[in-house]
Amino acid sequence: MWRCDAVARRLVMRLAGGFAVVACLIGCQGKSEEPVLETGEPLKGPWDGVEFAQNNPYDCVDPTGVPTEFPAHIGEDWDIPALEKIPVEYINELTDTALEASDHGPAACAMQYFQTFADNNAFYLEGDCTENGEAAAHDYERSLFTTGMIGLPVLKLKGDPFISDEEWENIEPWLRSLVSCHQVMLKDRLAESYISGYGGYHNSVYNVSLAGISFAIALNDQALFDEFVAGYQQALDHLNDDGSSPYELNEKGDATLFYHNYISNYASHVALLTDMNGHDFLHHEKLVKMRGLVMGDLGGGTTFADLAGEPQTRNPTDEPHNLTWTYHVGRIDSDAAVMQVADQYGPDLIHAMTAGLPERWWGPGTTLRANYGAP
């Protein structure tokens, strides 16, 4: 069902002129709530209030020939050079530039890429995206890349009045085909076999939740949103009472701390999106406890070494892009210790799969700024 974690940890993404290793994708009862949105109320995204006041020409790199499929694996390995040709960073750059300059020009370029992808039904694979298909080959890559390159960037452009209804309608069928892949992956990751075989849910349930929820907001699809929220909550509720993950404790050995931080990062980004829409998962009891365990070990504690029964050799600070959650949580909760971690790593927090630098979530007109004030 998935590639071994030794393979995943070798996936390298170019970030902000440097290289950072993407967190390994393999790893793998708090409060409950019902959906609270009124029927028909539009789903909110992080950048809905950003104003696009200009429409300037932009020198767009022609999307002709852009990859539209994930490369075949080389044995048990991912083809990293081929993955690096997928334009996740360029689309992040385009949409960030559009936001910062209030300019439709770079947004129009991003839409050219989305249209090219839609014309080719990019990154959809029948065997991954139908319940009766063959064993999924690329669900990990899809859950990450389509979040960082499509779901969140589309949300950045939701408020652009220069994008016509026809342009949005042209890419909607493709977005729906991709999110069907995420639905299949979510169902797989919540299978009872994880509980019986590993004691808990696989950590990728959180990155596929981020993918599905970002797409649901982009499509303004309440039923789809509720489906992924329910799956996300099911995973959170199944964490141990102390906030630890049964899967990570049973499977991750000397990287147990690393993967608890990985979960903290993706689960907290999911919460940013859900909590704009009437929930409060950022303060789910078990997620709060998990982040507390991570912070304790970042401060020199040995909780995860004790729980795993061995020293922790893989530290989140070695790959700080997965500490992006500290920027958001520190500011929302006015937590000085968490903010100190975020401030310490600053530009190293950039993460292509969670919309680049975390401060981009907090610019003028953003939902976070409206709800919590300037960072």
How is this structure best described in words?
This protein is mainly alpha-helical and 375 residues long. It has one domain: Glycosyltransferase (Alpha/alpha barrel). Helices cover 52% and strands 2% of the residues. It has a two-stranded antiparallel ribbon. β1 and β2 form a beta hairpin. α3 (88-101) packs antiparallel against α4, α9 (204-219) runs parallel beside α12 and α12 packs across α13 (285-298). It is globular, with a radius of gyration of 19 Å. The termini are far apart. Mean pLDDT is 88; it is low at 1-39.
Distance separating the two termini: 41 Å
Number of H- or I-type helical stretches: 17
Globally, the shape reads globular
Strand fraction equals: under 5%
Q: Structural class from helices and strands?
A: mainly alpha
**Helix content range of the residues, please?**
40-55%
Structural domains: how many = 1
Number of strands: 2
CATH superfamily: Chondroitin AC/alginate lyase
H/E topology pattern: HEEHHHHHHHHHHHHHHHH
Question: Which CATH class applies here?
Answer: Mainly Alpha
Q: What is the residue-averaged pLDDT?
A: 88
Radius of gyration: 19 Å
CATH topology tier name: Glycosyltransferase
Break the fold down into its secondary structure elements and pairings.
Elements: H1 5-8, E1 12-15, E2 18-21, H2 80-83, H3 88-101, H4 104-119, H5 126-129, H6 139-156, H7 165-189, H8 192-198, H9 204-219, H10 222-237, H11 246-251, H12 256-275, H13 285-298, H14 303-308, H15 325-332, H16 336-345, H17 367-372
Antiparallel strand pairs: 1-2
Helix pairs in contact: 3-4, 3-6, 4-7, 6-7, 6-9, 7-9, 9-10, 9-12, 12-13, 12-15, 15-16
